[in-house]
Amino acid sequence: MPAVPDPSDGIPEPILRKLLQIGLLISSKLGLRELIEAVIEVAGQAVPADRISLWLVDDNAHELYTFVGEGLDQEIRIPIGGQGIVNECVVARREINVPCAYEHASFDKSWDTENGYTTYSVLCVPISRGNRVVACLQFINRKRGKSRRRIYFPAEERQMFVGRFTSSDARIARTIADYIGVAVEKSLLVGRLKSQSWSAIKMLADVTDGRDPTTGDHTKLVTAIAVAIAREMGLSQHMIERVMLAAILHDVGKISIPDRVLRKKGPLNKREWSMMRRHPTETRNRLARLEFARGFEDILFAAGAHHEKMDGSGYPDGLKGDEIPIEARIIAPADVYQALTQERPYKPAKPSAQAYGICCEMEGTHLYPPAVAALGAVLDRCGGDPTTLVELINW
Ligand code: C2E
Ligand code: SIN
Ligand code: SIN
Ligand code: FE
Q1: What is the mean pLDDT of residues 117-135?
Q2: Residue 20, SS3?
Q3: Which of 223, 263, 335, 365 to mutate for ligand 1's pocket (most ligand atoms within 8 Å of CB)?
Q4: Structure confidence by residue, pLDDT tens digits, 16-66
Q5: Ligand 4 centre distance from Cα of residue 189 (Å)
Q6: What is the CB-side half-sphere exposure of residue 311 using CA atoms within 13 A?
Q7: pLDDT, greater one: 223 or 392
């Protein structure tokens, strides 16, 4: 964590307190977007400016984009290396503090022209991690301050007295930039770890699906539908992730079922059924040997309960109603609907509407009514073709 400047640096006490507040925000558990929003709000109290934006470097697209731009309601993207003060700041890794943007060589007037805005003073601070620039913190039009000039913004029908950014402003901005650098790095790291574990888990599911060529993308589609149902029901982001994880893993227990049973072209006999009915327990046992992130430790119970039924007649435990984990109550209709609409060696595929009709008949006895209702809304929206939902889960 970067140090808060010493008061002897000449930074006034109230501003130091603002910086401390930012330090505390960075160490809190907020997601990056909320964090940056909060930091920018406090930054505006420490260095009053008409607009404050954080520009992030997108290495893949070779672009800079506004992560959160106060006063800007949509993301702006510009190619790295093109015109603009932000570009100069990032490419030359240089802090830029100009009292009059129009007299600065790299300034790009087009944004002003398009938006009926007048950029006057600009302060841009590069944010580096290691030896590369990851972002740029930009302040436009110092409110109040020295050598004020009256500026009129035609598109917004307002005027403002604009000053220039001082060296003390710049020092405060550098400290804020250091803090943001820590937050950005932390988030990039966590993001990478998270997407790594998700892709490993998805691969495991692809392997399960691959065992049985006739079930094709069963798990992928069940997951997409279940996540859509969870969203439709308005569950929290964390619960949606739990539904997603449990859905991806729900059938991994099928790995233990012999091919001759799994791929059988007709109805199962009694012995084969008893093997088949063990798969949720196998799922649970396999997951019990894995280590999950905080908030996901008990996911095995949700994944292992996808064949439980509301009236208690399901397996493996005969759980009833809300004894069944909510994630499993959401996955069940997705599973049944997907199984019905997919061709199997022992039965043809049913059209979407008919499959949904069967789910409705199972409501209450087998399936959880709110999840069935949400499934209906989801199917309406995707025109009965859940393959369009797969992009929702990045698979
Ligand atoms: P699955 O094919 O992925 O089906 C998942 C669930 O969807 C089934 O769980 C059942 O609740 C529902 N479902 C599937 N087809 C129908 C149907 O035609 N009508 C109705 N009302 N519901 C349906 P269930 O029954 O516990 O089966 C678990 C797994 O056992 C199935 O997963 C499938 O892999 C296997 N299986 C089930 N029946 C047969 C069969 O007749 N032959 C073979 N070879 N396998 C079967
Ligand atoms: C902008 O910030 O919208 C462009 C100003 C510049 O960086 O030249
Ligand atoms: C995640 O990738 O964050 C969820 C999976 C897990 O908890 O391991
Ligand atoms: Fe299953």
Answers
A1: 91
A2: helix
A3: 335
A4: 777 767 766 665 555 677 778 888 888 898 999 999 999 989 888 899 988
A5: 34
A6: 6
A7: 223
Q: Which residue do the tokens 């650098």 mark?
A: 181
Q: Is 293 in the pocket of ligand 3 (CB under 6 A)?
A: yes
| pLDDT (0 to 100) of residue 29 | 56
Rounded-to-integer distance, Cα 201 and Cα 348, Å? 30
What is 160-210 written as a DSSP string? Answer: EEEE---HHHHHHHHHHHHHHHHHHHHHHHHHHHHHHHHHHHHHHHHHHHH
Dist. CA 53–CA 150, nearest whole Å: 22
Q: With 0.70 as the threshold, say if the pTM is over it.
A: no
Task: Supply the Cα-derived Rg of the chain in whole angstroms.
Answer: 28
**DSSP code, position 348:** P
Ligand number nearest CA of 334 is: 1
The crossing angle, in degrees rounded to 10, of helices 167-211 and 13-26 is 10
Average pLDDT (68-94) is 83
Pocket test for ligand 3, best of 245, 297, 300 (most atoms within 8 A of CB): 245
**C-alpha angle 201-134-9 in degrees, rounded to nearest 5:** 130
